[in-house]
User: What shape does this take?
Amino acid sequence: MKKVRVLYISIEGNSRNFMERVEKYSKQKKEQNTNNIEIEAVEVSDSTDLVEEEKPFFINVPTYLEGGTGIGPEIHEIFTNALGDYLDYHDNFKKLIGIFGSGNRNFNVQFVLTAKRYASKYNKPLLYTYELSGIQKDIENFYEKIVDNLPKDYK
Assistant: This one.
């Protein structure tokens, strides 16, 4: 079995709910012998101890913004700083495979803006986006994107 870490931030609970469902889905896939990849969701917050990641991993980033239209200089992101600090710690970002993003489509250009900014900052692909806490199809697509993007030599 391959255990794959997905680091995430959750303030309102949508990302936490989504990641719990992804973990459960990955365990079902393993039990059905359809795949040997199990997701380990790790919530990052201001109280998380910074550690050096040992293996490649993914991140799941919600969008929390304050001010302006979301595209001008007056915008600033809130609540995801702990994840950015974690990625910068001992260059953890070098083991980052890809990024997933969530948001609310009602906010138009702000939809998954934080994930897009992480992708740009760390030069990593934005693999999949979903709205709020996602639907079952998002869980399945998220899992498949992880499977498809794991390095061939991942152990």
Notes: Residues 61 and 87 are 12 Å apart (CA to CA). The chain has four helices and seven strands. The beta strands are 2-8, 37-43, 57-61, 65-66, 76-77, 96-103, 126-131. The first strand starts at residue 2 and ends at 8.
